[in-house]
Each structure stands twice: as C-alpha cells, then as structure tokens.
Amino acid sequence: MSDYKDLMTDMGERARGAFAALSGITSAQKAEALVAAASALRHSQPGILAANAQDMIKGRENGLSDAMLDRLMIDAERLDVIASAVEQVAALPDPVGAIIDRNERPNGLIMERVRVPLGVIGIIYESRPNVTADAAALGLRSGNAVILRGGSEAMESNRAIHAAMVAGVTAAGLPEHAIQLVQTTDRAAVGAMLKAAGLIDIIIPRGGKSLVARVQEEARVPVLAHLDGICHTYIGKAADQDKAIAIAVNAKMRRTGICGAMETLLVDQDYPAPGPLLRALLDAGCEVRGDDAIMELDPRTVSAEAEDWDTEYLAPIVAARMVGGVDEALAHIADHGSHHTDVVVTEDEAVANRFIQHADSAIVMWNASSQFADGGEFGLGAEIGISTGRLHARGPVALEGLTTYKWVVRGTGQIRP
Description:
Elements: H1 2-22, H2 27-43, H3 45-61, H4 66-72, H5 76-91, E1 99-104, E2 110-117, E3 120-125, H6 130-141, E4 145-149, H7 155-171, E5 179-181, H8 187-194, E6 202-206, H9 209-218, E7 231-235, H10 241-253, E8 262-268, H11 274-283, E9 287-290, H12 292-295, E10 302-303, E11 317-323, H13 326-336, E12 341-345, H14 349-358, E13 363-366, E14 385-387, E15 395-397, E16 403-410
Parallel strand pairs: 3-4, 3-6, 4-5, 7-8, 7-12, 8-11, 9-10, 9-11, 12-13
Antiparallel strand pairs: 1-2, 2-16, 14-15
Helix pairs in contact: 1-8, 2-5, 2-7, 3-7, 5-6, 6-7, 10-11
C-alpha cells in the first residue's frame, strides 16, 4: 500500500502542477487541444480496436455478462462517436470565468460570483472505455486536471485511448499530466486515491453499487456519487397507447446495459390497454416479472419477487406492477427508486405536473424515453455520470458540474465603518 501511496503522491503532485499551468491557457487553446485529441483518437483507430479486442477476449473468458460486454465493446462506429463527443465538448462554451451573478452594494462594492475549476479530479469507473475520453475532455475543457482509474476489464482499451488523448493535447501545447491514467489494476491503488486529500480535490465514482459504496465508505476526499439507475416508467390512465408502447419498449430494449434503461414499469390500473403494452415488451425479447395483476394479462410473464423492485438488471428484464394512480406510482418510486431518472407517460397535464413536482429524481421526464438520460442528449457534449445526490451537481455532470465558484469583490477604496 505504501508503494501506491507514493504513486498517488507523485501523480497528484504532477496533476496539481498541470492544473496550475492550465490556469494560463486560453479557452481557444483548450478547444484546439481537444480537436487535436479527437483527431488522434481517429488516427489511432487500429491500435485502439486491437486493444479493445484483447479486453473483449479476457472479458468473455472471465464470464462478463452480455450487458457488461456491450458496455466494454468498441468498434469503428463507436470510436467515431467517442471522437465526435470530444469535438462536441471542444465546441461548448467554456464555463471558466463566467459570471454567475453580479450585485452592486449601496456602498459601491461590486460582488460577483465567478466560475472556476474544481482542481484535480479523481475519476474511478468500470467497464466503459469511452469514459476515459469523455472524462479527459470534460476535465480539460473546464480547466481541471484529471486522474483516471478505469476498471481492470477495460485496461488495454483505456491505455490506448489515454495515449491518443495525451498525444493530441500535448501536440497542441498543453501539459501532458493534465490527463493521467492509473496504470495498475490493483485495487489498493483505488484506496490510495481515496485517501489522497490535499492532492485530489474531488472523487467521482462511476459504476455499480459495490464500487460507489466502497468509495463513500473509504474516501477522505469529497465524493460526487453516480449511483445505480433503477429507472421507472409510469403509464398513466390517460396515456396515448402508441406513445406508451413506443416509449416503454425503447426505454427498456434500445440498450439494456446503460444506467438510463427502464428497470420497472408501473401501469395505472385504469389504463385501458395494458395487454398490448406487455405483449410489445415480451415480443421484443424482454422478460417481464410482474405482480398478480400483470401476470393475468399474459401467460409469458413470470412472478416478481420482492428483490425485483430494487434491482438494476442491465439486461432484457423488467419488473412490472399495477398501481392505483399517480400517487401510488410516486410512493413506489420513493420506496424503490435510486433518484436517477423516472418517466410519466400521460396526456393529462395535471397528472404529469404532479409527477414532475413530486418525483424526487435527478431527471424527471414526461412522454419521453428514459434512454435520453445522457449528457450528449442534454446538449452537454458528454458527461462524467448522472449525479443522484443533492449537493453541488445533479443529473448529467458535464462542464458546469466540474466547476465551483469564487467571489470577486471590486471596490474603489471602500473601508468598513
């Protein structure tokens, strides 16, 4: 452990030096560096795909689920999406230096709140190698230095993507240590990151319950948590039937392994067409685990157990139950949800507004698929994750979420009486 403490001290000190250097870099220079990084990703396609193929082979040998393999896999199309996301971040407005608000006091003092970077950000994540590029791009654009620790299952992919990103940004004149990758898969290195107070300013975990729980338990550094996505879709009695089917099937089956996938379907007992809704899911290849009322509608359904209401499947499985109106749906979500993304499907605006007001979720949607719970779809270019907590940032954490603020007071010689 002492070796990893030394490693993290060394990486942290280099990161703090890079962070200081970034304060003198213009917004245009940061944008140019990210465009160069995107170009390097595309130029490095053969090496990145070969590295990913190694990870995929190991993943299959180690028994990774289909959902985890889907998160891990990179092909030419996905790599182009990763590079495009970096370019989108480059094109976004730079939040650093933006004046949040301004107030002139009676004595003539001008008070401003101005956005500034968080500092050195440690990001711990699993499976998805695209996070390596997303996190590096968002960190750099918002003026932060990042220390990345990806999961062991994606180590070769992460190394290749990291190398391409560093090649791009350094060619554009930015410090190479603004983007660092922990090169070991030893879990003890994570422990050293979590205790690196004074070197790392904030830790962002992105992964399953066990990872987030460990980070929250062991961290001596502030944590911005990305928890699991137990996302609900409530079909109100006034839902349009075509919309209900399209939204439910898309929310579950478009990509089952992402955190915005629907895991629980709540159907109003007065919704007139529950049978076609369930048939559409079942015909699409989804296993439906239902309560007694749901099971009466289709013999292909199976009985839900108590733990199903609290499960993030990340697979073509959904838990489904009948509810007696919007308030019962909200009560179920309050008891079993993860405060990630919850959806109401209805043509009744009063019901929709009640759901929106009372669903205690980072993202609440009306008549839209929960698969839109993604920073790119929010116009943010990319995201570090979906924050389900209440402090600092909530929902998709992108550029603005990676800044804080300082007060700037401008005077003309005022003294306090």
